[in-house]
């Protein structure tokens, strides 16, 4: 009975500490589900809307049209809204990152959001909107499947669906992020843009103006580096899926890790208290030892 009481006291203290620190609010499964559902809903809407407004645009089918006639490209209302909604969403992602469940790739995601916002803002400012729309629509495809796959993970009866989603996601990721993006968009920006916009423009001549195209290309390459980084993470998940039979997320959840450490510490404190209690004749001395061990909180 006494051991049960001590365990209850220790657990209660950890719960109070977690609660005051916002732990319960951050660690709830419902919040994670809502986060995934919100992003899944948005990416689905954004991709559908992007297809609708870009379907009859020449640059969707021929990327060179992004450079021909530049900078005299008109932006109709549908493209303007598409750009504004996407830019606003990435602003919201960047701000929400500070409140969402923290992952081990937090800073990589932050860099991704900052680079994406910088790309969208600068490309809109210098009227590189056409290539910007191609980057957006090609990125949304894999994100839809990724967020849907995350949702299925919360239902143990949908393990097979989760694994199928992962295969589809992996395929779409490789095709869009490591195929279409670098070998169509980035390649065209490097090889076609200068000659089609300004024949005497040399990218490697850093003193030649304008400087904006070089900045845009640098940010495009930064995104590509991030794609490669996340591809390594995805490959780790592939290995985990093959060896363990279920797709998971190899990124560490900082709050979950903290909770695990707290549980381990609770067990250690209980063992220490029992050992102290067995070596002392007075229970008051044992309680004193417990609070000494607990004082670092």
TrEMBL record:
Give any Pfam family that matches.
Answer: TRAM_LAG1_CLN8
Gene Ontology CC = membrane
Give the signal peptide as a residue range, or say none if absent.
none
Q: Which UniProt keywords apply?
A: Membrane, Transmembrane, Transmembrane helix
The chain positions of domain TLC read 31-243
Q: Which PANTHER family match?
A: LD18904P, LONGEVITY ASSURANCE FACTOR 1 LAG1
Localisation: Membrane
According to its UniProt entry, one GO biological process term is: ceramide biosynthetic process
Put simply, this protein is called TLC domain-containing protein
Q: Which organism is it from?
A: Angiostrongylus cantonensis (Rat lungworm)
Q: Which GO molecular function, any one, fits this protein according to its record?
A: sphingosine N-acyltransferase activity
Q: Does the keyword Aminoacyl-tRNA synthetase apply?
A: no
Q: In which pathway does it act?
A: Lipid metabolism; sphingolipid metabolism; Sphingolipid metabolism
Q: Topologically, how does it sit relative to the membrane?
A: Multi-pass membrane protein
Q: Which domain of life is it from?
A: Eukaryota
């Amino acid at each position: 009975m006494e051991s049960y009481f001590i365990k209850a006291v220790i657990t209660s203290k950890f719960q109070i500490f977690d609660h005051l620190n916002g732990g319960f609010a951050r660690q709830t499964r419902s919040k994670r589900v809502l986060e995934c559902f919100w992003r899944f809903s948005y990416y689905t809407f954004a991709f559908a809307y992007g297809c609708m407004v870009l379907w009859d645009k020449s640059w969707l089918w021929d990327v060179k049209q992004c450079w021909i006639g530049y900078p005299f490209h008109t932006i109709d209302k549908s493209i303007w809204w598409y750009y504004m909604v996407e830019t606003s969403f990435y602003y919201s992602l960047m701000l929400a990152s500070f409140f969402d469940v923290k992952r081990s790739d937090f800073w990589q995601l932050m860099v991704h959001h900052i680079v994406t916002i910088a790309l969208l803002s600068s490309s809109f400012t210098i009227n590189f909107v056409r290539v910007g729309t191609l980057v957006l629509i090609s990125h949304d495809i894999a994100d839809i499947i990724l967020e849907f796959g995350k949702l299925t993970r919360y239902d143990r009866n949908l393990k097979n669906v989760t694994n199928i989603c992962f295969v589809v996601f992996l395929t779409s990721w490789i095709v869009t992020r490591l195929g279409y993006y670098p070998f169509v968009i980035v390649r065209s920006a490097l090889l076609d843009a200068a000659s089609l916009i300004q024949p005497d423009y040399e990218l490697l001549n850093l003193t030649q103006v304008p400087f904006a195209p070089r900045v845009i290309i640098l940010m495009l390459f930064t995104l590509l580096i991030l794609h490669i980084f996340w591809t390594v993470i995805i490959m780790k998940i592939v290995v985990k899926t093959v060896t363990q039979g279920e797709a998971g997320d190899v990124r560490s959840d900082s709050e979950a890790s903290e909770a695990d450490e707290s549980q381990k510490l609770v067990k250690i404190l209980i063992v220490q208290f029992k050992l102290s209690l067995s070596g002392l004749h007075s229970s008051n001395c044992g309680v004193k030892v417990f609070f000494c061990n607990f004082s670092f909180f």
